[in-house]
Amino acid sequence: MSDKQEWQAYYKQNSDAYKMELATFRIHQNGKVVGTGTDSVGDFEINGTYQNHDIKWIKHYVGRHSIFYSGHINSEQTSINGVWSF
Fold first, then answer.
1. Count of domains observed in the chain
2. Mean pLDDT calculated for residue range 50-63
């Protein structure tokens, strides 16, 4: 997994898609996942882990709540799909 790969992101809620602007998003060789960005809810920070195509992180909205993400990276390492939960 490249530390420098660029990602485009969105999430779905009630069948509607919402874009997430990622200022940074990195999956480091040591398995650490970090990022920052903004979406319709507000500014957020991402901190998590990656191992064996499984990825998990906490998306913390600055000054607000956090939400948990659990997903899977495809074998080409071009797409991440998963679910959000509180």
1. 1
2. 95
Give the total residue count for the chain: 86
Tokens representing 74 are: 């495809």
28 in a domain, yes or no? yes
Q: Which residue intervals of 1-86 are DSSP H helices?
A: none
Q: Taking the model in full, what pTM does it have?
A: 0.82
CA Rg, the chain, in Å?
12
Let me know if residue 1 belongs to a domain: no
Strands (DSSP E) contained in the chain are 9-13, 16-27, 32-38, 43-51, 54-61, 66-73, 80-85
Evaluate whether residue 43 is within a structural domain: yes
